[in-house]
Amino acid sequence: MQPVLMYCTAVCPYCVRAEALLKRKGVAGIEKNRIDLEPARGEEMIARTGRRTVPQIYIGETHVGGCDDLHELDRQGKLDALLTG
After folding, report:
1. Which CATH number fits domain 4-84: 3.40.1350.10, 3.30.590.20, 3.40.50.1400, 3.40.30.10?
2. Is residue 82 within 8 Å of residue 64, measured between CB atoms?
3. Per residue in 2-31, pLDDT tens?
4. CA–CA separation, 42 vs 36, rounded Å?
5. What angle do CA 3, 19, 44 make, to 5 degrees?
6. Which residues fall within 8 angstroms of residue 75, CB to CB, at 6 or more apart?
7. What gap in Å lies between CA 46 and CA 29, rounded to an integer?
């Protein structure tokens, strides 16, 4: 299973939805960078992704995007392959 990194906040419903999908797919651990607790992580996220919204999700070295992007990958049948590398 590829490592998963998610930039997120505590109260973001899209972050919760993305995490729920990843858990249903068998992802045991998600490294969470809480930009609400660590503002420097927010700056890091913007520099890496060019985006200001959460969640921003990486699977391995691949930037997936946000919650909608993650669910679209799943609908297209591409998420499982990305997760297994």
Report:
1. 3.40.30.10
2. yes
3. 999 999 999 999 999 999 999 999 999 999
4. 8
5. 60
6. none
7. 23
